[in-house]
Each structure stands twice: as structure tokens, then as C-alpha cells.
Specification:
The structure holds 2 protein chains of 2 kinds.
Chain A lengths: L5 E7 L6 H14 L7 E6 L7 E7 L2 E6 L6 E6 L9 H21 L9 E10 L9 H19 L2 E5 L7 E7 L8
Antiparallel strand pairs in A: 1-5, 1-6, 2-3, 3-4, 4-5, 6-8, 7-8
Helix pairs in contact in A: 2-3
Chain B lengths: L4 H4 L6 H18 L5 H9 L3 E2 L7 E3 L4 E3 L6 E3 L2 E2 L4 E5 L5 E2 L1 H14 L3 E4 L5 E6 L4 H9 L17 E2 L14 H11 L14 E4 L14 E10 L2 E10 L11 E8 L3 H15 L10 H8 L1 H14 L5 H6 L25 H8 E3 L5 E6 L5 E3 H14 L4 E3 L5 E7 L3 H10 L14 E2 L13 H15 L5 H4 L3 E4 L13 E10 L2 E10 L4 H4 L4 E7 L3 H15 L6 H8 L1 H9 L15 E2 L2 E4 L17 H21 L3 H20 L10 H13 L12 H11 L7 H29 L5
Helix pairs in contact in B: 2-3, 2-5, 4-12, 6-7, 7-9, 8-9, 20-21, 20-24, 21-22, 21-24, 22-23, 23-24
Classes of the chains: A alpha+beta, B alpha+beta.
């Protein structure tokens, strides 16, 4: 599976936020180019869109969104461009997972939130936005689950993986980490 | 074996389309090798709908400084970096979408964009933040479901739009849908539409009186008509040409009272040939068809087109498209049954009032899905595809008000549909009302945006939605449209309350403003345009809207429209209202005025920063510009009174005042003589490119130069309106030049 279009959504413990919370923070991130190995370009305010992204930080390499799909807020990191030096799917997934956790950690530590925003490392969704390389089908799940399991276990601890139910969506699995390493970021 | 979309879709994309997309992919490869000139590649990708986006020149002001974005050196056009995110515009002729197409659009948004499908004011779909390398695959996947992005941008025939009710409308002469489709596909890639100096926009309406497809501001617009010829009813079109919005809007002129339906395609082709042959090619700012029609006059233009129809080489291919027309049909999924007694869920009645239209066909309705600012997520688009299939027989259309409609919904299934929409949070009422503010992308993504049209539109939507339940019906029926700049992509000219972005210099800062346009007419195919009443700081627009609507309710006579109200009250009185909202508080009192809606950065135009703060002193140039604006407004009043020569002279005076104000920045004692003013203005500000627009270049300067050569002595309503509009644009540009000149005099803060 050669695609780099991997996305990870890490869920927040509360959904009581709006675009106004994130847009100014993201603009400050751009001023200071706070994410290593990312060129931060712009901020998009989608607060008017029900049940979707509320704010997106556009970087050259990835889009980082606060996403409220299905009413559950999470930070959705979507890798758009190839990852230098990451030759295998496992390498790419590890890089994306790490970048997601780093972004979540930085965001929740921002002074604007004063502790109100927390992300749960034990509650993730891993997606591949590439229907050609990773069609949302049983075969993909069988092929990739062991690798996803290995990476998630290594980074977060043992986890239960469950495929998503909507066949029209991109390939996605829910990862619920159960061990003690799984905690709020 | 490596996977690729071309092989994956083999057999589902026609050989001709495959070859086209392959050619584009090859051009991408050649450009990467430096074997294609960047200008040529730019026009190539534009003709495939692959547009640039803001900051693709590698620079972005972050609110404190200009950042260089470290893209690789390769470009995809002049001053446009290869790796910078772009926009893909996707043509949807007459807005028609089937479920399969909607699903693919959702997938493309997820895989190549930011997960949002954006509906435009011309019924297109746009995907933003797309990488140019992804565009061939994106195009293949669209082609597999019968969608092309070819000629979505560039100097070509753009999307052919049509009323979203065509075919189900109670007042239409006949269904224009198959004619719009025939025009779209006949002209697509036609050899006679490849050499335009500028874009060409076509719209078809089913009826004259409703808003329909807004033919009045299209290059070519047709209104369906029927006529008895030799005892038989014939279908045809009342044709209008030379309309356009842009900085200076033009109402289309009547070309023919009746063109038989079978003559429509050949005539459109002939018009394309005339435009290609006689249209301006060097000066892009005067290259739209409206300028050619204005230059020739409608009678001569008509004569030339008729001549072209008679003499152009035969092209029988139009017949293939025309012969498809009788085969056009939409099939509902269910029999149409009227809804009778039923328990209505909360919110349904309000939604039904604004979002449901009873079709011509008994038992069926059209349901409008309100899409805030035209945005839908991929999940929502997929869900709507499913609803379209189950309730609407797969018949959905985008609208120019940036919504989506489901047609052929049986009335007795409406509550079921509503409940499903509610579960998706897509059951917002208010479509086509004052709450349903439409806006172009503006400074969010457009390189030409001056102020945040979407930011303002979002704020207005929120405030107006909160009050909608208690709103007077007269106010609820108004339309607000917002453009990010004078180019009118938000169609502000035809709104009851229209706004377009500009800026004003306040002390050492640049403050986002919107020019206020009141009294535009949406109905009767956009029958008339609003007039400018002054610029208001962006942050004061919502309060202005509140005041204007309150006054309308309080002062309205009988059932007069907002347009009639504006005409009766008069522009002088309206300007007095607007003027109450023009004050910008000092920066140290309220810094929020110095950033735009939804964007906390300190406002700037391009890379211009703010100078060293020297206190809030009113400069001589501000006095001069105020006088110029006063003259411009006086010109509008004269125009309104039908005093066209006087309006012309006053508008010219306004431009001379603004120009002299600029010259005085360098030569305080410049005499008040037109010849001296114009010459010094040219030498000091235009030749030095201080009075210069990044994208329009010297266009605004040409307004005063042309008028200095002599007036248009026809002195008609059109000629007077044109120069009044030009004076306003000239003054706006003079403000910018003033700010640019002043910033260059003082060190930029770091």
C-alpha cells in the first residue's frame, strides 16, 4: 500500500468549542511556524458548516482540522504530500500518528484553552484517503490491520481495531487503546 | 503492477476524453522538465479548470510580517508556484447532478481537497487546496461519471447556467434544460470558441419575470418564448447579449425578440466567431463581449452576427446536440401525491415556507437544501446523493444562490425527507431569504479578494438567523450578496443589499471596508443594478444592515419593494444613513476594526504593512478624497434625475479631484487645470506604477485618460452610468495609491 494519504483523528474529551476558539490559535501558529517539518500556510474557518470541519490549518504537507463530524470533536490530521524517508506503510503511519499527537498536544497546551481542551490518545480513527490504493473493503482491512495494530501498539499501547461501517467512506478503523499508556495527551 | 486511475477506469472514460486528459498530464510532465513556457502552461491548466489560489506567489502576510513560503522554484504560471495549493473548478451545466456524480465529487473532496464541496454563484462546484499533480486523476474520475472541467476557467465559454426550476417551473414557457445542455456540449472545445480574448458566459431562463437565470448580466442570455408561426406553436428564445457584471456592470441588450430554437446553436457559434475576430485581445480589462457590443452598438453587432450566420462555414455537428433535445426527460422515483393531514415535526412549517416549491406537475415539490456559504462536507454530499436517489429520482441541481435542490419529491414524502435532512443537520430554513447570504470566496482563497466576503457573509447569516423568527416579512424577503472585490463574483450588483470589498487608509493603517450597493433587482432576470452609496468599515456592515432594514419596515409604503423604496426615498437620504456608519475608531480605542471578519490578522492589502504610527491626524489627502467622493455621489444624483451630461461632467470632476489630490502629495501647488492634472498624474503615479492594480494594472487610470480625450457625447443613461461607476472605481484606486505612496515614505514596522 503505497499511499501517503493517511489521516488520523484523535478525539477530544469535550465538543464544546467553536471555530472562534481555533482560528486565532492557528494564525498564531503560522506566525511562529510552530510545527516542525511543516510549512503552515493558511487557516480556513468552516464554523458555518454543520457536522463537519470547524477550522482547518492548511500546511504544505497536511491539513489539520478540528472536525465535528457526527457531533464528536477531534483533531483530524490528513497527510497530503509524501513523507520523505518513510518507505513503508508502517513508517508512514507512524509518522502521521506522531505528527497528529504532537499537534494535539501543542493545541491543548495553548494558553487560549487553559486546560479546557483535552485529547484522548486512547480514542482514534485511522483513515486512508485513497480509494485506489486502499479501497474500503475487507481485503484492505485484512492486509493493513496487522501493520496498523503494530504501529498503534508501539506508540500507544495495545488497542482494539474496528472497521467503520459505511462502505462509501474511505477506509477507516477505530482504534481504542486499552493499556495504561493510553491517556489524555 | 502499479495501480493508476487511468487503468482502473479503463472503459468508463471515452477515448477522446482519455486522450485529452493524457495530453494535459503530458503537459504537466513537460512543464516539470522546463519544456513548456509558464504562461502557456497557465492558460492550459486554466482551460482545464485548474486555478491558482491566494498566496500561490509564495508570500503571505501573517499579521505581523510577510512570510516567504518555501516552495520549490518550479512554477505553474507567472508568479505562481507549482506546489502552492490551487483550486479546481468543475463545470456542472445547468447545475444538474445525478447521485453517481455527487458521490464522486464527495470522494474527490476527501482525497484531494479539504473535504468540502463548494457550490459557486454560477452553479459550478469548486474544490480548494488541490495540488496540480493530482488534477489529471481528478479529471479522469470526473470524466468517468460524465463531468468535465474543461473550459471551466480561462478565455472560453464558461459553465452554461439555467434556472434550477427549469422543467418543473409553474411559469416557464418550456423546459430550457436540454437547450442549456446542448449549448454547453456543442460549444465545449469547439474550434470557434478557442480564440477569445476573455471569458464568455451563457445563461438560459424559462420565464421572463422571475429571477430565473439572471440573463441580464450574461454575455449571451436566452429567455424561453413561444410564438405561433404558420399556425403552429414554435419554441424559441428572446436573446440578450453583452451583459456582464465585473467592476462596471452592463445590462445585456436585446439582440432578437425571437430566435427559433433550432437556430440557437448556430447563432451562438456565430457570436463566438464574431467575438474571437473583433473582440479586444490585448487589453484584458476591455476584452469582454460587453465592450465590443458597446463599441459597435447593438444594431451593428446584430448585423455582423446575422452576416456571420449566413457566411460562416457549415458545421453540421450542432445537429447531433440539437437532436438530443426531444429525448431529454427526468423521471421521478415515486408517483406524485399531495400531502394531506400529517403530524409536522418541529421546524417543518418554517422550512416548508422558504425551502419548498410546488412544481408544475401536481403532487410534486422541489426541496431546497440550504448550504451555508455554498459549502457541503463529503459526508453530506454522499448523504444527499442517497436522498436524491430515494426521494427525487436522482434529480438534483445546484443553484446560483449556492444551494442544492432536489426535484420531483412527492409531496406526501416531504416530511420523511425533512426528518432525514434534520438528522443530517441540513434542514435549515431560509433559502432565498435575507438569511441566505451568498458570497464569493473572497480573501479566503481568491487572489483578487480585497476584504473577507465570506467572513462578512458568515457574520450576517449568524446575526440574521438569530432574528429571523421575529423578522418582518418584508425584510425576510430581501437578498444580500457579498463580493470580495469589485469584480462582482458574489453578484452584489443585483442584490437588495450588495457589498463589495475595498479598503480605506486610516492614519497609518489600512482598514477593510465594503462599498454599499442598494436597490439592485434580482427578479425579471436581474433587471437592474444597485448603485454605490459609499464605503463602510467591514465591522460596521451588520449594524448598517440592521438600520437599513429597520428604516425600510418603518417607512415602507403599502407593499413596495426595497428597490422601489430606495428609489422613492432617494439616494441622498440613503447616503445620509450610510454615512452614519463610516467612522473608524482610532486603533488604540478599537483595534477590531483593523482586522476583518473571521481573520484576526491585522488587515493588509497584499504585502503592504502599516507605517510608524504618527497619531490620528486627518491628512490633506483625506480631505481631497472626501471632496472627490462628494462629487461622485453628486454625479449619481444627476444620473438619477436623468441629467446625463451633467452627471458625466460631475463624475469627471470627481476623478480630476482625486487625481489632483494624489499629485498634491508630491507637488502641493499643482494648478486646478485638467490638462496639467492629468499629465502630472500620469507622470507621477501611473508611469511609476504607484497608481496600479496588481491584476487590473492601469485599467483605472485609463478612465480619466479616456475622459480627458473627450466625453461620450451620446449622453445616454448607459454612458452616464458607466462614467459614474468608473469615477467610484477611480477614487477607490486613488485611496490605494495614496496608502501605497504613504507607506513608501515611512519605514515598515518589523
Amino acid at each position: 500500500m503505497d499511499s501517503h494519504k493517511i489521516a488520523v483523528k484523535i478525539f477530544a474529551t469535550s465538543s464544546a468549542f467553536t471555530g472562534e476558539d481555533f482560528v486565532p490559535v492557528f494564525h498564531r501558529w503560522i506566525q511562529n511556524q510552530v510545527l516542525a517539518h511543516h510549512t503552515l500556510i493558511d487557516v480556513v474557518d468552516y464554523d458555518h458548516v454543520p457536522n463537519g470541519p470547524i477550522a482547518v490549518l492548511v500546511a504544505n504537507e497536511a491539513n489539520i482540522a478540528l472536525d465535528l463530524t457526527d457531533g464528536r470533536l477531534g483533531l483530524l490530521y490528513f497527510r497530503k504530500r509524501p513523507i520523505p524517508g518513510a518507505d513503508t506503510f508502517a513508517d508512514r503511519l507512524r509518522a502521521v500518528l506522531t505528527d497528529t499527537l504532537n499537534a494535539a498536544e501543542r493545541l491543548q497546551a495553548d494558553e487560549h484553552f487553559a486546560g479546557r481542551l483535552r485529547f484522548n490518545r486512547g480514542d482514534l480513527q485511522i483513515r486512508i484517503h485513497d480509494r485506489l490504493e486502499a479501497p474500503n473493503a475487507a481485503a484492505t482491512y485484512q492486509q493493513l490491520t496487522p501493520q496498523i495494530q503494530a504501529v498503534v501498539t508501539d506508540v500507544l499501547g495495545p488497542a482494539t481495531l474496528t472497521p467503520t461501517q459505511n462502505p462509501q467512506s474511505v477506509f477507516a478503523v477505530q482504534a481504542q487503546a486499552v493499556a495504561t499508556r493510553a491517556s489524555v495527551v | 503492477m502499479a495501480l493508476n486511475w487511468k487503468d482502473h477506469l479503463a472503459g468508463r472514460v471515452s477515448p477522446a476524453l482519455t486522450a485529452e486528459i493524457d495530453a494535459f498530464a503530458a503537459q504537466i510532465a513537460l512543464r516539470k522538465q522546463g519544456k513548456i513556457d509558464e504562461k502557456l502552461f497557465a492558460e492550459t491548466r486554466l482551460r482545464r479548470g485548474a486555478y491558482g489560489q491566494r498566496y500561490d506567489n509564495g508570500q503571505r502576510n501573517d499579521g505581523t510580517k510577510t512570510q516567504k513560503l518555501p516552495y520549490s522554484a518550479l512554477t505553474k504560471g507567472p508568479d505562481t508556484f507549482w506546489d502552492a495549493p490551487g483550486m479546481q473548478r468543475i463545470k456542472i451545466p445547468f447545475g444538474g447532478l445525478n447521485p453517481e456524480q455527487m458521490i464522486v465529487l464527495a470522494e474527490l473532496a476527501e482525497e484531494y481537497s479539504d473535504g468540502i464541496c463548494h457550490i459557486t454563484t454560477r452553479q459550478d462546484i469548486q474544490l480548494h487546496y488541490v495540488h496540480i499533480d493530482d488534477t489529471p486523476d481528478l479529471m479522469r474520475r470526473l470524466a468517468a461519471v460524465g463531468i468535465t472541467s474543461r473550459e471551466a476557467c480561462g478565455n472560453s465559454v464558461r459553465n452554461v447556467t439555467a434556472c434550477p426550476l427549469a422543467g418543473v417551473c409553474r411559469t416557464e414557457a418550456f423546459d430550457v434544460t436540454p437547450y442549456a445542455k446542448a449549448l454547453a456540449y456543442y460549444l465545449l472545445g469547439h474550434r470557434d470558441t478557442q480564440d477569445f480574448g476573455r471569458k464568455f458566459k451563457i445563461a438560459l431562463s424559462g420565464c421572463e419575470d422571475e429571477a430565473c437565470a439572471l440573463v441580464s448580466f450574461h454575455d449571451l442570455g436566452g429567455v424561453a418564448a413561444k410564438k405561433i408561426v404558420d399556425g403552429q406553436e414554435k419554441r424559441g428564445f428572446k436573446l440578450y447579449v453583452g451583459g456582464g457584471l465585473g467592476p462596471v456592470p452592463h445590462q445585456a441588450k436585446l439582440l432578437e425578440e425571437f430566435v427559433a430554437a433550432e437556430d440557437l446553436l448556430p447563432l451562438a457559434r456565430a457570436m463566438g466567431r464574431v467575438f474571437a475576430r473583433l473582440g479586444e485581445k490585448k487589453n484584458r480589462n476591455r476584452a469582454r463581449l460587453k465592450f465590443l457590443v458597446h463599441k459597435l452598438g447593438i444594431d451593428e453587432f446584430r448585423r455582423i452576427v446575422a452576416e456571420e450566420v449566413r457566411t460562416m462555414p457549415d458545421d453540421p455537428s450542432w445537429r447531433e446536440h440539437y437532436d438530443q433535445i426531444p429525448r431529454w426527460a427526468e423521471k421521478p422515483a415515486w408517483e406524485g401525491v399531495q400531502l394531506t393531514m400529517a403530524r409536522r415535526p418541529a421546524g417543518f412549517d418554517e422550512w416548508e415556507k422558504t425551502n419548498v416549491y410546488q412544481q408544475l406537475q401536481p403532487g410534486y415539490v422541489v426541496a431546497t437544501i440550504t448550504c451555508p456559504l455554498g459549502d457541503l462536507t463529503s459526508d453530506q454530499m454522499r448523504a444527499l446523493a442517497d436522498l436524491s436517489r430515494r426521494y427525487a429520482g436522482g434529480n438534483a441541481r445546484t443553484t446560483v444562490e449556492q444551494n442544492l435542490v432536489l426535484r420531483w419529491v412527492p409531496h406526501n414524502k416531504l416530511i420523511e425527507l425533512y426528518n432525514e435532512l434534520a438528522a443530517l443537520k441540513l434542514n435549515q430554513a431560509g433559502a432565498g431569504t435575507i438569511v441566505d447570504v451568498t458570497a464569493c470566496p473572497g480573501t479566503d482563497t481568491c487572489k483578487l479578494g480585497i476584504a473577507s466576503s465570506r467572513g462578512l457573509a458568515g457574520e450576517l447569516r449568524t446575526r440574521l438567523a438569530a432574528k429571523s423568527a421575529s423578522m418582518d416579512q418584508a425584510v425576510r424577503g430581501l437578498r444580500i450578496k457579498v463580493s470580495g472585490c469589485f469584480n462582482s463574483c458574489g453578484q452584489h450588483h443585483v442584490a437588495d443589499l450588495g457589498f463589495y470589498g475595498n479598503s480605506r487608509n486610516v492614519g497609518k493603517y489600512t482598514v477593510p471596508h465594503f462599498q454599499v450597493m442598494l436597490g439592485g433587482q434580482w427578479s425579471h432576470n436581474a433587471a437592474s443594478f444597485g448603485l454605490a452609496l459609499g464605503a463602510v468599515p467591514s465591522k460596521r456592515i451588520p449594524d448598517l444592515v440592521q438600520t437599513l432594514t429597520d428604516r425600510f419596515v418603518a417607512e415602507r409604503q403599502s407593499a413596495e419593494s426595497f428597490q422601489r423604496y430606495c428609489q422613492r426615498v432617494g439616494k441622498k437620504a440613503l447616503k445620509e444613513i450610510v454615512d452614519q456608519f463610516t467612522v473608524v475608531p482610532p486603533h488604540n480605542e478599537d483595534a477590531s476594526f483593523y482586522s476583518d471578519w473571521g481573520d484576526p490578522r491585522e488587515f493588509t492589502i497584499g504585502d503592504m504593512g502599516t507605517g510608524e504610527c504618527a497619531g490620528e491626524v486627518v491628512s490633506m489627502s483625506q480631505f481631497g478624497f472626501a471632496q472627490a467622493e462628494g462629487d461622485a455621489f453628486a454625479a449619481q444624483l444627476l444620473l438619477d434625475e436623468g441629467k446625463y451630461q451633467a452627471a458625466d461632467e460631475k463624475a469627471y470632476r470627481a476623478m480630476l479631484t482625486a487625481a489632483r489630490t494624489l499629485v498634491q502629495l508630491q507637488w502641493l501647488d499643482v494648478p486646478d487645470e485638467p490638462g496639467v492634472i492629468v499629465e502630472e498624474f500620469r507622470k507621477r503615479f501611473v508611469d511609476t506604477k504607484i497608481f496600479w492594480d496588481t491584476y487590473c494594472h492601469g485599467q483605472f487610470g485609463n478612465y480619466i485618460f479616456q475622459r480627458f480625450e473627450g466625453p461620450d457625447t451620446r449622453y445616454t443613461a448607459d454612458t452616464a452610468r458607466k462614467i459614474v461607476e468608473e469615477a467610484n472605481l477611480f477614487i477607490d484606486a486613488a485611496h490605494k495609491a495614496d496608502a501605497k505612496f504613504m507607506a513608501a515614505q515611512t519605514p515598515v514596522k518589523v
